[in-house]
Amino acid sequence: MMPVLRCSLDVRRALERSEPVVALETTILSHGMPHPQNLQTAREVESIVRQAGATPATIAVLAGAVCVGLDDVQLEHVAKDPMLKLGASDLAFAVATAADGATTVGATVQCAALAGIAVFATGGIGGVHRDSAASMDVSGDLDAVATSPVAVVCAGAKAILDLPKTLQALETRGIPVVGYGTDTFPAFWSRSSGLALALRCDTPREVAKIVRAQRALGQRCGLVVANPIAERDEVPQAEMERAIDLALVQAAAAGVTGKALTPWLLDRLLALTSGRSLSANIALVRANARLAAEVAVAIAS
Ligand code: PSU
Ligand code: MN
After folding, report:
1. Torsion angles phi and psi, residue 55, rounded to 5
2. What 3-state DSSP class applies to 65?
3. What is the mean pLDDT of the chain?
4. Is the per-residue pLDDT at 1 higher than 70?
């Protein structure tokens, strides 16, 4: 078989010793946040994971190698230089053509599973877009999470999506969605979407127990741990909805679709909220990294 996986020394050592490791994605850096905030966030998130007792494994495809655990030069390259946005459907092409690319949630969970990493932290997963009836735009994240045994710690799905349909799509794929300290699905930049969740956990140990139960059941499926943004960091939902509605109208007018849509909307929202969507995004990613590390520690112990 062709060797595609390139783990950093840190990550390899941690995995060999069955120590806690947290996978991190790079599309959020390359296509989700402006420079230099993206690089600063990436470094902070890695140090948060370390402080909580786990090894960070930031994942990207570089020259066709699936790099699991990036050094600072590689991290800077991903944060500064334009590169492909790799969903699960693009991964093999990127490897085959020795390309550079940032991995989405979907591609990252596949790479994490390949490396044997059980926990992953991100901002928000992709899902069913609001115009899905016409465009059929449903993020590849959903099927990848359904088929990769990796716990995804996130602030729900990005609120630019149709959240009720996204929840339904998760259920259809057999992906458990667990509210962390909440009974409702978070709305990414806002604490709650108001949509009820049937499953709830209040400690990392409870999450770890579900992961173990999935393994015992032979389920090769992921798990969504929906961790709401802290109250002090949120943008209230009514305010966010106004900005999202406007951004969606502008995206349609500009003819933006497909892969470009999510990054385009995130960038528009940054302007429409005078930067508040970005500070909320950074805050929730940090919180998710901390929780993911705690979950990884609980699974390893
Ligand atoms: N969450 C963020 N910022 C992002 C994304 C998620 O806070 O940029 C990215 C993730 O990488 C996710 C992707 O997998 O958006 C979904 O894109 P799409 O809708 O094209 O599948
Ligand atoms: Mn999409």
Report:
1. -100, 125
2. strand
3. 97
4. no
CATH of the domain at 239: 3.40.1790.10
The residues lining ligand 1, judged by C-beta closer than 6 Å to any ligand atom, are 25, 27-28, 31-32, 87, 104-106, 122-124, 126, 139-141, 158, 259, 262, 266, 281
Predicted TM-score (pTM) of the model is: 0.97
Mean pLDDT to the nearest integer, 156-160: 95
**pLDDT above 90: residue 201:** yes
- Helix 37-51 crosses helix 72-80 at what angle (to 10 degrees)? 140
The DSSP call for residue 259 is G
Q: Which ligand is nearest to the CA of 140?
A: 1
Query: For residues 70 and 28, what is the distance between their CA atoms, to the nearest angstrom?
Result: 15
Mean pLDDT calculated for residue range 189-213:
98
Residue 68, pLDDT > 90, answer yes
Of ligand 1's listed atoms, the one at least distance from the Cα of 85 is 11
Model confidence at 111, in pLDDT bands (50, 70, 90)? Answer: very high
Q: Which of 28, 152, 285 to mutate to test the pocket of ligand 1 (most atoms within 8 A of CB)?
A: 28
Instruction: Count structural domains, the chain.
Output: 1
Given the CA of residue 87, which atom of ligand 1 is nearest to it? 21
Give me the domain span that covers residue 20.
Answer: 5-300
